[in-house]
Amino acid sequence: MVKTNGTVKNNGFIEDRYEIRLSGSGGQGLITAGVILAEAISVGDGKNAVHTQSYGPEARGGMARCDVIVSTEEIYFPEATKLDLLLALTQKSSDEYTKLLKDKGILIIDANYVKHKPERPYVAVPFVEATKEKLGLVVATNVVCLGFITQYAKIVSKKSMEYYLAERFPKKFEESNLKALRLGYDLAKEAETGGRFDIKVEESYETEIDRL
Amino acid sequence: MAKKPEIKGTAQFLQGNEAVVEAAIAAGCSFFAGYPITPSTEIAEGCAEKLPLVGGAFIQMEDEIASIAAIIGASLAGAKAMTATSGPGFSLMQENLGFAYIAEVPIVITNVMRGGPSTGLPTKVSQSDVMQARWGTHGDYTPIVITPSSVQEVFDLTIHAFNCSEMLNTPVILLLDEILGHMRERIIIPDTEDIKIENRKYPSVPPEFYKPYSNTPSKVSEFVAFGEGYRYNVTGLTHDEFGFPTSVPGEVEQMLTKLRRKIHTHRKEVILYEEEYMEDATYAVISYGTSARAAMSAVRKARAHGVKAGLLKLKTIWPFPGRKVYQIASSVKGILVAEMNMGQMIREVDRYAMGQCKVAGAFRYDGLVIEPDEIYEKLLELRATK
Which residue from B minimizes the CA distance to A62? Predict the structure, then answer.
């Protein structure tokens, strides 16, 4: 065991994990989005990924979240405890989970629905508004979020993402889903360059998980 | 949590509940009766969709009492049959569970555990049905209860559940928890020829010599499906070797002993567990289901900090691997039992540790999953106590 500045160096027992939490309101499709993300990472990209979900007894409206744990090693504990990436689409989920983020973790919030912005670096994206404006329907918000995460956090290959997104839904939605995914890519590209987004960045985010 | 399997097969990304369906069909299950209940609903949903495609049948019954009755009937008619439920439904099934046991009917009951008692926490995790699975039905009873901890294990152990039930003509309970039922992981579904399937033993004698509950040396009787020309009586009353009610003390004792010995003589095939880092361990964590995953992380953290910890992960909790626990207790300084209830399995561990070492528990019962750090802290506490 090697100790440096109070932290224990990896001696083969510390798991290498990248923890993602997608959170919002029940019915927004975030649990499904998480399934697609995890499937693309695990079956598509060949890393290990575990997806867990948590929701209330309500069909819609309650708090809903899912966790995706990514690792090149075996994953034991299946839920997130220290987040590398948090997507929060509601005020409640932002308030509740922001404190679980690592110092350099990525925080992505909905610009309109999270009114009280957290006291830490974040990217605020008007997911719901942009989806309604550009695609004319709100149901695709989860797919737009997926596109954003794919482009911005670079934890999954676009190829796998597009393949497993198409596979999850009936053929007739393939085109509209791809459109929504690309809208997410575009929003992320805009976010990377500043654009019209409310972005509060103090230091550069860890956007690559090179260590995986 | 499963090691990367060497066997060839197809990779899929499945939920625990979906893996139950895939495995049941692979094991030859052709009948499902149930009543949907969170967090087990996906099993009923999957069976409704997939069983008809393989010539099987799905039926939604009016409640859980009828559901287990229907699968007992289907099994007596020759089908491998399963139902799936959660706490409240499992409570309703208890009486007929005893019927399946005394009438020696092979069935598989999946209970995806949620918080209780009563309606409790429908969408939250718990492992509080461990003792209900052991003692839920009335009378002297020896159940087989299986607890997987990863989606791959759900697949493999569902097959094991069907195999045990077919091999021993007895009900088998597959205990999942909400996290595992809803968790998704990549699993490898082995090719059909690589899956070992057991089937009930059909009679080798003509109908006039057939004894449906014969007391054979292995205690397993030959089974025959209704409608195949072998007439016999099935009853919940204590019965003789022909299935007719009896209250003759000698026959009563023989029947009850046979039912218990049937399970106990096949312990080696039935009881499965895994040991991790146990070779040189001075502290052992004993756990099962989703808790075992947190326990594994805690054990690795302890090892990283120089504490010689090991894990005994139970895949079969009943019959309890008492001999193994006795052995471990004789070689370590302390045992920590990690589970998501107020302390159920710890009673059994304590009983078999027989005072040879310290025994403590890490429990959580607030609807959230037990975390590695909680178990790690308890492990340090256990180490510090005299």
Answer: B123
Give the position of tokens 């193994």. B324
Return the pLDDT at A206.
Answer: 47
| Tokens at A177, concatenated | 């889903």
Q: Give yes or no for B286 touching A (CB within 8 A).
A: no
**A177 in any annotated domain:** yes
Query: Whole-prediction pTM value?
Result: 0.92
**Backbone torsions φ then ψ of B10, nearest 5 degrees:** -110, 135
Q: What is the pLDDT of residues A104-137, one digit of tens each?
A: 899 999 999 999 999 888 999 999 999 999 999 8
C-beta of residue B174 within 8 angstroms of C-beta of residue B107: no
The whole-number pLDDT of residue A5 equals 38
* Cβ A58 vs Cβ A26: under 8 Å: yes
Mean pLDDT of A77-82: 93
Cα B80 from Cα B162, distance rounded (Å) = 8
Separation CA A112–CA B117 (nearest Å): 41
List the CATH number of the domain containing A71.
3.40.920.10
| Residues A203, B53: Cα–Cα separation, whole Å | 56
Structural domain of A71: 17-199
Residues B77-84: what's their mean pLDDT?
A: 97
Question: Residues of A with CB below 8 A from B371's CB?
Answer: 77, 79, 81
Report whether B329 contacts B352 (CB < 8 A): yes
pLDDT score recorded for residue A12: 59
Mean pLDDT of chain A: 85
Residue A197 has pLDDT above 80, yes or no: no
Maximum alpha-carbon separation in chain A = 56
Integer angstrom CA distances of residue A199 from A142, B102, B361, B364 = 21, 68, 46, 39
Contact (CB<8Å) B371/A77: yes
What the block records as the tokens of A192 is 């990377």
CA dihedral sign of residues A33, A34, A39, A44: positive
Q: How many residues does chain A have?
A: 212
In Å, what is the CA distance from B15 to each residue of A48, B140, B167, B297?
15, 35, 28, 22
Residue labelled with tokens 């569902």: B158
Can you tell me the distance from the alpha carbon of B95 to that of B98, in angstroms, rounded to the nearest whole number? 5
Whether A206 is covered by a domain: the verdict is: no
Evaluate whether residue A11 is within a structural domain: no
Does the beta-carbon distance from B1 to A57 stay under 8 Å?
A: no
8 Å CB contact of B369 and A78:
yes
- Least Cα separation, residue A145 to chain B (angstroms): 20
Which domains are present in chain B? 9-194 (3.40.50.970), 273-384 (3.40.50.920)
pLDDT tens-digit map of B191-219? 999 999 999 988 889 999 999 999 999 99
CA angle B250, B220, B266 (to 5 degrees): 105
What is the maximum alpha-carbon separation in chain B?
A: 69
Q: Is B36 on the interface with A (CB under 8 A)?
A: no
